[in-house]
Amino acid sequence: MEKHSHSIKKHELRGPQKTIFPMAKTKNVLSPKLSLILLNIFIIATIAAVANAGSNDLGSRSSKTRRPWPFKKLNKPVVLMISSDGFRFGYQFKTDTPNIDLLISGGTEAKRGLIPVFPTVTFPNHYSIATGLYPAYHGIIMNTFTDPVTGEVFNKGLQPKWWLGEPLWVTAVNQGLKAVTYFWPGSEVPKGSWTCLEVYCPRFNNSVPLEERVDSVLSHFDHPEDEIPDLLMLYFNEPDKAGHKYGPDDPRLTNAVSRIDKMIGRVIEGLKKREIFDEVHVILLGDHGMVTNCECNEKAIYIDDLAGWIKLPAAWIQAYSPVLAINPQWGKNVENQGEKNAEVVAKMNEALSSGEVKNGDLLKVYLKEKLPERLHYSESSRIPPIIGMVGEGLMVRQNRTNSQECYGDHGFDNKFFSMRTIFVGHGSRFRRGKKVPSFENVQIYSVVADILGLRPAPNNGSSLFPRSILLPFGATREIEYEV
């Protein structure tokens, strides 16, 4: 980890905490009679403990206290996490989704959706789900970007140096558990003890049918008992693909949602066939939502319109939409570059607020360190010095075109409801039929770690959050866990 560019504030991260109780000192001496009584009690307790350990040695490998697992088919907790890319919250109401509904009715749902991290795009959010870190801390700040310091380009690459933090699959294998992934972004990257063979962790191939992906993951449950993975993570690239191509309101998008529901049905059927549906913790979620960009020329802001105030060289602009990213190239010999960046921001905002730039009031430009704190998008040298936040569904372009295509997009401020996605958890640790308030996806890492009995790595989630969404280990699903 590069200390100068990706330092993580201690107060931003939460990991496991241990409380040490000092042994009390005493000068009291026990009588021989009392000592004999205590010795007998100790022997009986020891025999009982050994017998109990022999019959219930099924708890977490990372736990010092063995805990009984209440089911018969699987001898341990198992998590199957499924991501449906671009599944905007509300898609489940567009058409019949009986299989998703089954998970919801028998499990726990984020009532008004799961909140993605900013920027609301695929790679940063999938890696935030996996690590519990905001993009500024795990390093994947966009799907593609240029490091302003080194000039190196990241384009969904697999070089370990880009991928910071500790994802769930690494946490699992580091603590003696087994993990497999299927197309989950970032899981193909060798990292520490994680060097998953392609037979267990296939390299992304968009042409692989969704059915084949499901069947491949389910086949792991046919292995001998001690070879069944503890953690399985599966990725679907729909309905994001349809959402981008047609927009969120097109019937063809609805067809893609129906197809995802059928895949969830295939998962449920496969687990039921193996008599383990109630034993596996199935988590269904998405990475972000989607919004229409129809009438795009009417919903655009043009950089050329700012020319009366400031002319921005095209080479400075790393990305236009939905996040405007500007990295001024002042040259090594120019002093006070921070002040010059501030002048650029001031001139741009002056132009945008003048009333003379079309839709100018819907773009706000910031020095990255001045971005709203709720975005957690400043603590990385990989983030360009100047960031522009555009209104919902709008775009930034260099100049006017005659393009009138109608499509969908995402990446906008995560405060917009259209950027929310789904979260459903089904399994013995999830409350049946429970609705919980919306939460950020950085909390999911600790939830999975809790289910699997793992010691979580430092992360941006709350160590107390799992208590708000999970039942205590071993509790029946009818019991509410008060927090």
From TrEMBL:
GO terms for cellular component: vacuole. Pfam families: Phosphodiest. This is Alkaline-phosphatase-like core domain superfamily. It comes from Arabidopsis thaliana x Arabidopsis arenosa.
